[in-house]
Design a protein that fits this description.
four-stranded antiparallel β-sheet
Amino acid sequence: MNNEKDGLTKGLAHDYVKLIEEKIGFKFKIVKVSSFDEILLLAQHGGVAIVNAVTKTPERSEYLLFTEPMVEIRNAILVRKNTVSRITLADLSGKRVSLVKGYAITEYIEKNYPEIICDLVSSDLNAILNVSYRISDAAVIDLATSSYLTEKEGISNIQVAGDSGYPVKLAIGSRKDWPELNSIL
């Protein structure tokens, strides 16, 4: 997780990398990007050694090796308050749903729910704001991030209305052409 105020990377996944650095005596250089999709493009072309806090998918497995997941978090379906109390992905057929470009949940929904109209955005906050401002009917992002952002940004007209059934399993991805790095991780 990035802290916009001081530009520092923070969070559980960052702490894992710091522990790995201590154990192996090597410091990874943090590459700043504007979106998650951008880091995946760098990974595809060998521009980064590891991608932290990434979910394994068949497409990503073509260019990354993965550690076992560090944590599993459910992907929540967010809607505006006072619209619906419970909803599933199937209920979103024909509806506009904000999804972050490059996320595994986005790939999953595009593949398995083609009748959902996907509003692709660059960040979790943009997905939440699209729902808040009635641009999208719903958003699907992980529960931890949605809770953090709605509280931090003071967004009070959003509620969790369901579970996507597709959890985020965060792992560390490493270059497929460097299998030794993956075994170290």
